[in-house]
Amino acid sequence: MPSMIVTPDICDAYPDVKVLEPLFLNLGGPDAFYGPVRTVKCFEDNSRVKEAVGEPGDGAVLVVDGGGSQRCALLGDMLAAKAVDNGWAGIIVHGCVRDIDILHETPIGIQALGTHPRKSEKRDEGQRDIPVTFGGVTIAPGQWLYADNNGIVIADEALTLDA
Fold it and tell me: Where, in this chain's numbering, is Mg(2+) bound (predicted)?
């Protein structure tokens, strides 16, 4: 893994990458992260998120389309810790997270729209490994996501980055 991801440099070197609208806050430990995409689509129910982070991540980034809801959190400290234990590189949440002070200290990249103290419902609803669309971009499993404090970019394949 390169020592530093710089999304402006990626955009300069690869002008065809897709760039998400600047909606997200960097809320995890690392400022930059990347990996192949795996997806969850859910609305105010984090059952599929819990399921995904409980499985081997193998350096992937979990992209969670929470419908942009700001009425509850889809990720907190316990699921983030489970993601770290299972080798996920990062998590993007089109929605909210909670336990922010702990997330800042957790060694996994996390970006979300914001924070909310309320936990989500547990109705065992949602879908996994399907294309999701938010921030002006459709993101599909198998694409590559690169994120830092400048933004989030999506590429159709792994990019060659200078270390």
Answer: 99
